[in-house]
């Protein structure tokens, strides 16, 4: 049994603990933001960002992990001097900076959008001249759920874009004309063992993931293998230990990488009920030096629906025999992920009928 310290105390940490307790692990949490769920399970129950509490967590833990790529790199470097941190600081450093991330993709031959890192309106104007429109301007760090982004549709929007999110380092990316968005969740342990979940399809609305279909339909063996080879390259290059997720665009020219997350991922939540071993359990196994579990799906098809902004008709979900409800104990707020629903099905038709009956949880 190991004592696992988690930097962050949101729903991802909570689901890690729920997966790790049956393996006999203990958990402690260090709350970083005021927004995190209050009812955390765990050995520890820390709520402030005081240095004392961080020290207490590090003293408690055999191994430290983190919930977010926005975790302070300096804090992780300091902890790593005394306690193993998985994934390691290199994974965190690259994944928290869109410029470093895309440079690594490029260096490793993983296709991605043309991009340029810019620090001023002049540099942005030059980058737009080269990359063209439409393009998408993002903060290099800290963005999530599509926050800190501006789609530049026409040449005359450059100043407006800089005014909206500029004054800091930004990245301009060519707008990828994709058929659909896919993601691959993978896991690697310190012994170098790797496992891959099936590619899933993700549907976003206003930058926020609304639902995932697992596995993505009509994915050839070749495309699955291609995605696995991309993420495997990254896992090895970063000497990554834990779960790593790669978000991909499927285009007429093949797969393009969008971004990676050095952690369990919203598009992997279906694995809790839908796979032999969940992404959370596999992350725990990986960081504890245990053998990895099977990533096979347990049923032909599953879906994960995010509950965003308001809780919605949850009684309906509770009445469905093949639905599983997860609420994160967070207060309702515009654009906020409050929970998710997993649907397990024998066929695509049955799944889509169930999704339709829960359309109150989906936008439009
Ligand atoms: P996440 O919540 O997944 O961490 P994020 O805020 O880090 O999101 P991205 O994943 O980069 O942001 O972008 C959010 C969404 O915006 C993508 O899932 C995709 O739908 C769209 N998008 C981002 N970059 C591009 C691009 N270069 N071309 C086309 N669409 C894009
Ligand atoms: Mg992101
Ligand atoms: Mg994303």
Automatic annotation (TrEMBL):
Binding site for ATP: 98, 138, 143-149, 173-176, 181, 204, 258-259
Keyword Ligase: yes
Ranges for domain ATP-grasp: 102-288
Entry GO CC: cytosol
Catalysed transformations (reactions): 5-amino-1-(5-phospho-beta-D-ribosyl)imidazole + hydrogencarbonate + ATP = 5-carboxyamino-1-(5-phospho-D-ribosyl)imidazole + ADP + phosphate + 2 H(+)
Record-level Gene Ontology MF annotations: 5-(carboxyamino)imidazole ribonucleotide synthase activity; ATP binding; metal ion binding; phosphoribosylaminoimidazole carboxylase activity
Keywords for this protein: ATP-binding, Ligase, Nucleotide-binding, Purine biosynthesis
GO annotation (BP), single: 'de novo' IMP biosynthetic process
Pathway: Purine metabolism; IMP biosynthesis via de novo pathway; 5-amino-1-(5-phospho-D-ribosyl)imidazole-4-carboxylate from 5-amino-1-(5-phospho-D-ribosyl)imidazole (N5-CAIR route): step 1/2
EC number: 6.3.4.18
Family: Belongs to the PurK/PurT family.
The protein's role, per its UniProt record: Catalyzes the ATP-dependent conversion of 5-aminoimidazole ribonucleotide (AIR) and HCO(3)- to N5-carboxyaminoimidazole ribonucleotide (N5-CAIR).
Subunit composition and interactions: Homodimer.
Name the record gives this protein: N5-carboxyaminoimidazole ribonucleotide synthase
Source organism of this protein record: Thiosulfatimonas sediminis
Gene: purK
């Amino acid at each position: 049994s190991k004592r696992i310290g988690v930097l962050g105390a949101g729903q991802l940490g909570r689901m890690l603990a729920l997966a790790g307790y049956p393996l006999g692990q203990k958990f402690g949490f260090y709350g970083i933001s005021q927004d995190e769920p209050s009812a955390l399970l765990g050995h520890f129950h820390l709520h402030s960002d005081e240095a004392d509490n961080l020290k207490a967590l590090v003293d408690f833990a055999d191994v430290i992990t983190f919930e977010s790529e926005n975790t302070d790199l300096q804090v992780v470097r300091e902890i790593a001097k005394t306690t193993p941190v998985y994934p390691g600081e290199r994974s965190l450093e690259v994944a928290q900076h869109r410029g470093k991330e895309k440079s690594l993709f490029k260096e490793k031959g993983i296709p991605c959008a043309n991009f340029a890192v810019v620090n001023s309106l002049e540099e942005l104007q030059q980058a737009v001249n080269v990359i063209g429109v439409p393009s998408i301007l993002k903060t290099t760090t800290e963005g999530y759920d599509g926050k800190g982004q501006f789609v530049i549709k026409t040449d005359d929007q450059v100043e407006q874009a800089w005014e909206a999110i500029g004054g800091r380092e930004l990245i301009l990316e060519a707008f990828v004309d994709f058929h659909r968005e896919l993601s691959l969740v993978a896991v690697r342990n310190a012994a170098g063992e790797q496992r891959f979940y099936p590619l899933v399809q993700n549907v976003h609305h206003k930058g926020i993931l609304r639902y995932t279909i697992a596995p993505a339909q009509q994915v050839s063996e070749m495309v699955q293998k291609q995605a696995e080879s991309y993420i495997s390259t990254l896992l090895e290059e970063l000497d990554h230990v834990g779960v790593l997720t790669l978000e991909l665009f499927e285009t007429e020219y093949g797969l393009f990488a969008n971004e990676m997350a050095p952690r369990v991922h919203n598009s992997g939540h279906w694995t809790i009920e839908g796979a032999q071993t969940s992404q959370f359990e596999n992350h725990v196994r990986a960081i504890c030096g245990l053998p990895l579990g099977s990533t096979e799906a347990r049923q032909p098809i599953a879906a994960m629906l995010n509950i965003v902004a308001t809780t919605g008709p949850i009684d309906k979900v509770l009445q469905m025999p093949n639905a599983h409800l997860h609420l994160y104990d967070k207060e309702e707020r515009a654009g906020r992920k409050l929970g998710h629903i997993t649907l397990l099905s024998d066929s695509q038709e049955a799944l889509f009928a169930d999704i339709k009956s829960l359309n109150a949880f989906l936008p439009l």
